[in-house]
Amino acid sequence: MSLITVLGFALGVLLGVVLSYIIIISRIKQNKFKEIKENEEKAKRILDDASREAEKIKKEAELNSREQFLTLKSDLEKNYNERQSRLNNFERRLLQREETIEKRASSIENKERELQKHENYLKNKEREIENLKRKHKEIIEEEIQQLHKIARMTPEEAKKQILLKVEEESQTEIAKLLKKVEEDYVRRKEVLAKEVMATAIQSNAADYVIESTVSVVDLPSDDMKGRIIGREGRNIRALETQTGTNLIIDDTPEAVIISSADPIRREMARRALQRLVEDGRINPARIEEVIADTKKKFEQSLIDEGEAVVLEFGLKNIHPEIIKLLGKLRYRTSYGQNVLEHSKEVAAYAGKMAAEIGANVELATRGGLLHDIGKAIDREVEGTHLELGVKLARKYGESEDVIQVIASHHQDMNFPSIEAMLVQAADTLSAARPGVRREILEVYLKRLENLENLASSFDGVAKAYALQAGREVRIIVNADKVYDEEAIILARKIASKIEDELEYPGQIKVTVVREKRIVEFAR
Questions:
Q1: Cβ burial 100-118 (10 Å sphere, 16+ → b, else e)
Q2: Separation CA 460–CA 478 (nearest Å)
Q3: Of 63, 274, 388, 407, which has the fewest beta carbons less than 10 angstroms from its beta carbon?
Q4: What are phi and psi of 216, to 5 degrees?
């Protein structure tokens, strides 16, 4: 029993150990399975997170690359447009130069044809003279034979009489021929001069702005007027005192008028007031600060303006003070014409005419640009603008040739050079163009009115219109009073009366229009 008990106990222990092992193994497997499952789920979550992160990174990369692509595309398009613009500008300049060369070539060809015609004309005249000489010789021989037969003179006596007669006839013929050649030369000389001036004018068209003695500053609202005036008027007094101008704040809505006879003061006041209005801070201290800064910038703008003009005409070695005075001419007017624009136009005209006739282009251009330089200081210094211009040119190192051009541009002295004559002619052309100056405009309008009144004074004229700046007058006649044949005679009579009674440059085209309309209604 004891052995059986021991064996049973041992078997029970062994069976317990085996069952415990099985249970432990089972639990380990369950834990491992659970851990594996958790790991799988964790791995899945990691993969999902990684996938989402990768998708996010991919989208961000796509957005960045798209932004970079758009930026690069914009830069490329901008560079392309800039290059295209430069190419277009270069192409336009080439076309303009080509047109200029073609025009000059055409002009040269026309002149060559004219010279060829003149040469042919002279050759024909030479042939005519040779024919006359030959005829005179034949006449002399015939006269000698006749005299021998009739008068029974000696050859020497007959020769003397014939020579005297032929000499008288030849003198008359030669005088007529010389007079005709001289008239033709004078006519061609005038035509050539007109061609040279016309070429210079056409190649330099300019716009004109008639300046007045007031400037207008726009305001954002009428409330700003009170701030400009300030408490007890201290702001407006400070502005007027420091700028030397008058400010007119009236009923004009949202605007202040600056009045001054000095255009430079008026411009500085306008710029200062605009800055104050934009800034919004308006008080005496701020006004003083802005005006001081505006004067400084305005002085620099005068230099920039003068340098731009000098660069435009390609002039060299011009004194900085002369450049600054050229900038001041921007704010100087003469009879309403801007003096700087006038000087630029004179320089262009004189340079073009000098190029046409083979004169010194640089001297003509320089003298034309500086001919009115004295007007930059004639309101500050005693003396005429011509005297002041000569002094300034001599003071700042201009050559004697340029000084003589300035001194003679109003014909106060004999012209020292062909360039001085060209500058004087260009000055007259620029100042006398219709509409440029106020007084000239009145004369120009009066001439158009006289032209229309003269044409309207004839019987049968219904209406008369001056066209093309007075270069043509178009007359509408009454078809019941003036017939076609009479219209021809009427045009000739009007043209003759214009020639006799009016003064005008060039020629005036007279056009008579006769029209008869018959209207009937079908009802």
A1: eeeeeeeeeeeeeeeeeee
A2: 5
A3: 63
A4: -120, 130
Show the DSSP H helices in 151-283 as ranges.
155-202, 223-229, 234-243, 263-279
Q: What backbone torsions phi and psi does residue 511 show, to the nearest 5 degrees?
A: -120, 120
Question: What is the CATH code for 328-432?
Answer: 1.10.3210.10
Say how many C-beta atoms besides its own lie within 10 A of residue 181's C-beta.
14
CATH of region 440-514: 3.30.300.30
> Is the pTM here over 0.85, yes or no?
no
Cα 227 to Cα 57: distance, rounded to the nearest angstrom: 58
The two beta strands, 509-514 and 472-477, are parallel
Residue keyed to tokens 């040269």:
108
Share of the chain above pLDDT 90, in %: 3
Tracing tokens 């060829």 back to the chain, one arrives at: 116
Query: Does an H or E element contain 355, and which?
Result: helix 339-357
**How crowded is the C-beta side of 386, counted as CA atoms within 13 Å?**
11
Residues facing 512 on adjacent strands: 475
| Domain ranges (residues) in the chain | 122-202, 214-309, 328-432, 440-514
pLDDT category, 151, cuts 50, 70, 90? Answer: low
DSSP state letters, 159-172: HHHHHHHHHHHHHH
| Whole-number Å distance between alpha carbons of 305 and 330 | 8
